[in-house]
Amino acid sequence: MTLPCHWYECDTRCIAVHQQPASLIELCLSRGIDSHRLLRGTSLFLEDVAQATTQISPSQFLVLIDNAQRLLAADDSSFLFGQRLLPGHHGAASQALALANNLQQALELLGELRALLSPLLSPRLLLDEQHAYLYWLDSCGLGEQRRFLLEANMTAVVAMSRRLGGEHLPWQFHFRQAAPRQIEQYWVHLGEDLHFNRPYDLLRLPRECLTRPWPQTVQSTAQVACQQARQQLQALGVQASLLDTLQRWLLRHVRQAPNLEHAAAALAMSPATLKRKLHKHGTSYQEQHDQIRLLVALYLYQLKGYSNDEVASHLRFHDATNFRRSFKRWTGLAPSALRQLLGN
Amino acid sequence: MPNLLRHHRLKLTALLLAANLGLLLHLAAGDLKAMAEWVWLDLIGEGGSALLALAWLGLILKSRPAGRVTNLLAIGLGCVFFSWWVDLLDEFIQIPDAITWDHWLESAPMPLGLLLLTYGLYHWHHEQLAISAQMEKRERLFREHRLFDKLTPLGGADYLRRQLELSLAQSSREQQPLSLVVIDIDDFDSINQRYGHAEGDRVLQAVTQQMLLNLRHQDLLCRLAGDRFVVLLSNTGETLARTLATELAQSIAHLAHKSRQHGERLFLSATTATVMALQESPENLLQRLNLALAKAKQPLALSA
């Protein structure tokens, strides 16, 4: 049951500097930010940025983002960065995205190539009869930069769909955070259909928008680009972060109510090591497990129409009361209240 | 701005020489006091004042381009510093009673310095009025540079919200209508894509200038976010606001902006929407404005 060791951690050097970090650095330099102050604490030099071989770790990238945000001191930094992200400058991976047949294929590619295209925040596509959902999970212990990255990544997806599809799509945005002070930035860069204080961070779209053909696709070239992108991912040597790997494993085994020992065994490490590694990412097994159970519960409620009892038994709770208590701890709301909130 | 201090090298050298000269004169004429004789309170008071005067001088020189007003302020502050400096020297060096020039050295520069400083500040006031005239249509009643967007530069959404609060109160007090116009550049993202983000920034700056030229002097233009601008129109009803909105859209369509790299003409267009304020909060009004814009953009999205 062990998983292959193809993950990266917050201190693994796996992000090519000349890709996403370079976009951010370029944005800052174009706004007259001093490069020394921008790179302070990242152990990077401006000369390294142009080198195709330089790689930095998620932690270093987060320091860079923190510096950039502080020095730019503007409300639109994350959105401007996001506009530059996709299809981006990732060689074959970007080309594969740009040549995708439709949005669905692009989003599936984005998920598959997430270690290249979205290394800090992992996207996951979910479909039901009416809607497509793209939800985002913290895959590197983002801490305070979480909001910046969410704004950037959501902007990136929306901007990509508009550029490649040539139309504005009726995106709906759900955020865990409360409504921000700079709501105007959300209006302009994302759209009007914004929902805050939700139990998840996701984008929602009517399902038929996913399969409308994109104009610029060239079937054969697209296939070659996809192959090359997969080789690119293989050359990177990692496919997802440790947290991401754990989250996906939890999703698959949520019905067995796995504990830390099970997860550690699946990841081929001792429970103490897993605990230490999770601590390094600013999280805990409990938190990760709760987050996944909440997502599954919401999925069962909203998409499958399960009742409280059914969800409780699916997630191996002793009884519905116990489950309700846990649910309230996860979201601050009872299941019924949350269902009402999400019902509209 | 590149280091402005370099333009003031002469002034700073003169001040350094004068301070040195004062020190040498004192050393030549008097005797050093023993540490037991030092009055610490005076030392801190006079030394601190001298340091502060020096800091003010530094800030003034660093923030202002060279010119008449800057010279007046700098010489005034220089005199003030010198006077406090000589005062401080007294605390360390005992001058014999027979010598009187040290009193002159200590007391004469201060009133002279303060006079020059006052004269300089008076002219600064006039200069500021001249500069404020250039800020017409960009700011009103209060100034807060931290609320200004660095690119265009116009007031941002927070600045607009504060202005709205004031204007809403005023309009309900005076029973005058208040309208808002929102202007959103069409397909701005594709300009960024085709010509680069730097060109996109230049388009925003050009459009800002263009709109400022088309506004009345009492109007206030703010940058809401990205490529979306809002004009606050006091004492303006909805019909007039619509006319102004149309004029703004036309002026943007006629702006023949050329890209920097190839001098190519960029064809711009903008969508506008208008709302008139009711009895409501700024938040609510902005929300309504935004929905009005979304509606105005709708047919465009469908036809694209």
Describe this protein with a few key phrases.
heterodimer, A: 344 residues, alpha/beta, Arc Repressor Mutant, subunit A, 3 domains, five-stranded mixed beta sheet, two-stranded parallel sheet, 18 helices, 9 strands, 10% strand, B: 304 residues, alpha+beta, Alpha-Beta Plaits, 2 domains, four-stranded antiparallel beta sheet, two-stranded antiparallel ribbon, 8 strands, 61% helix
What would you note in describing this structure?
The complex is a heterodimer of chains A (344) and B (304). In chain A, helix 1 (20-30) packs parallel to helix 4, helix 6 runs antiparallel to helix 7 (103-112) and helix 13 (260-266) crosses helix 14. The relative contact order of chain A is 0.12. Chain A is 53% helix and 10% strand. Chain A is of the alpha/beta class and 344 residues long. Chain A has helices spanning 20-30, 35-39, 46-49, 58-72, 77-83, 92-98, 103-112, 114-117, 146-165, 183-189, 219-236, 242-253, 260-266, 271-280, 285-302, 308-314, 320-331, 335-343; strands at residues 7-8, 15-16, 55-56, 121-127, 131-138, 172-174, 194-195, 202-206, 240-241. In chain A, helix 10 links the parallel strand 6 (172-174) and strand 7. The mean pLDDT of chain A is 90. Chain A has 3 domains: 9-73, no CATH class; 75-236, no CATH class; 241-343, Arc Repressor Mutant, subunit A (Orthogonal Bundle), CATH 1.10.10.60. In chain B, the strands form 3 sheets. Chain B has a 4-stranded antiparallel beta sheet, sandwiched between helices. A two-stranded antiparallel sheet of chain B has the order 1-2. Helices cover 61% and strands 12% of the residues of chain B. In chain B, 32% of the residues are buried. The longest helix of chain B is centred in the middle third of the chain and has 26 residues, at 109-134. Chain B has 304 residues and is of the alpha+beta class. Chain B is elongated and about 90 Å long. Chain B has 2 domains: 4-134, no CATH class; 145-303, 2-Layer Sandwich (Alpha-Beta Plaits). Chain B: Its EC number is 2.7.7.65. Chain B: This is diguanylate cyclase. Chain B: GO terms for molecular function: diguanylate cyclase activity. Chain B: Keywords: Membrane, Transmembrane, Transmembrane helix. Chain B: It is an enzyme of class 2 (transferase). Chain A: Keywords: DNA-binding, Transcription, Transcription regulation.
